[in-house]
Amino acid sequence: AQSVTQLGSHVSVSEGALVLLRCNYSSSVPPYLFWYVQYPNQGLQLLLKYTTGATLVKGINGFEAEFKKSETSFHLTKPSAHMSDAAEYFCAVSEGSGGGADGLTFGKGTHLIIQP
Amino acid sequence: DVKVTQSSRYLVKRTGEKVFLECVQDMDHENMFWYRQDPGLGLRLIYFSYDVKMKEKGDIPEGYSVSREKKERFSLILESASTNQTSMYLCASSIYRGVNQPQHFGDGTRLSIL
How distant is the Cα of B93 from the closest Cα of chain A, in angstroms? Predict the structure, then answer.
């Protein structure tokens, strides 16, 4: 069974500082990995996804993530935090089986706080 | 842009009522999903559907059922609402069964059961 662990339910950084949100997964097959962002009172918006190929994935709003198979990690980074980045971030994994469930397994989320 | 619309943003119901949450997507997507979101627990999959009249149980289907009579519409039904079903409910859709297809989410329905 697949699972996702997000380290830190809350992460606080100063505006302009590096953002690092950690995600580790477990999967019995090569995974497909996603990061979603949720702003207050809204649904989830896709930031980026890893399927196959290049392990460094670039997403929207200046975010990127690197798939490291040896570490079973998919950490999300942004070089310089902006106040508008304050939100809840979710890492998700999908294994699939060429016809199996496409439902995602989500981590519990990390609330990103940006200090002025 | 894909539009996933949930019929209500906020809903208050009483224990024992039968509750319907409606979701409509406008992009002819095959897959539709219902999740519930609780603080500290993230999102958990309740049910999903690959096609009209098809449904599959997710991780926490107990106390819920679903209906998909038309491709664009996926309804979540609480047969007899209980207070532990107070939660945020999120509907999502994706284009087809490929596992690398992202899901598109609605804005959620915050349901309170009194």
Answer: 10
